[in-house]
Specification:
Distance between the termini: 42 Å
Radius of gyration: 19 Å
Low-confidence stretches: none
């Protein structure tokens, strides 16, 4: 078994995780702490990757990252059919899970504790960093783990924007598809076992976090 698809999957997932964490927390804070025109539309758009076929998500990413887009024409950034495009696709499909969990956790933070911190002289940034995010950390971590699990298993959108190039953009889910197509079932079984084990650990960790918060009995 070549370990390149596994290593590339980890590389793609690490970059996707950073994107999910940074963008996800920012969006969660905005959605949990403010009300603005068009918020419902934004929330709906953020959740679309959960229900749209991956090929549709991939097609939208093709429009954003491909020839004729501002990213290419104005900024000269060309990342289609690279592992970086796979990382973006993975981040897009994992982001909604992070945003929903983190937003709920932040919204459930007791506002009296935040008000107490303000009366003690803390700025809004200090309240966020020292009170809100620490109290919401379990929900944020649970959302991040779910986002990582989704990013790790991404297939359809990745195929659309990064292709399936062995040694360059072939992640583990794509390698499994190729192995089945080529009737290499022993190899497919091994890679499926690796993917299942990783997904099991991530979901099990999320369940543990939820039980520690008393959400499950």
């Amino acid at each position: 078994m070549s370990w390149h698809p596994f290593i590339l999957s980890l590389q793609v997932t690490v970059v996707a995780t950073v994107l999910i964490l940074v963008v996800g927390i920012g969006l969660a804070i905005v959605l949990a702490r403010s009300r603005f025109p068009g918020q419902l539309v934004l929330e709906t758009l953020l959740n679309l990757p959960l229900v749209l076929p991956p090929s549709v998500v991939g097609y939208y990413l093709l429009l954003i990252l491909g020839r004729g887009s501002p990213l290419v024409e104005l900024l000269g950034i060309r990342i289609l059919f690279t592992w970086q495009a796979a990382a973006i696709a993975s981040a897009v499909v994992g982001l909604p899970l992070m945003v929903e969990s983190a937003r709920a956790a932040i919204a459930n933070v007791n506002p009296e504790l935040e008000s107490a911190a303000r009366t003690l002289g803390s700025s809004e940034a200090e309240v966020l960093w020292r009170v809100t995010l620490p109290l919401a950390r379990q929900g944020i971590l649970a959302g991040l783990l779910l986002g990582i699990a989704r990013a790790l298993g991404e297939f359809g959108a990745t195929l659309m924007v990064a292709g399936n190039i062995p040694g360059r953009t072939q992640t583990l889910p794509l390698a499994i598809y190729d192995a089945v197509q080529n009737q290499q079932y022993a190899l497919a079984n091994l890679m499926v076992l690796v993917m299942t084990t990783l997904a099991f650990v991530l979901v099990w960790w999320v369940r543990r976090l939820e039980r520690s918060k008393g959400l499950l009995r």
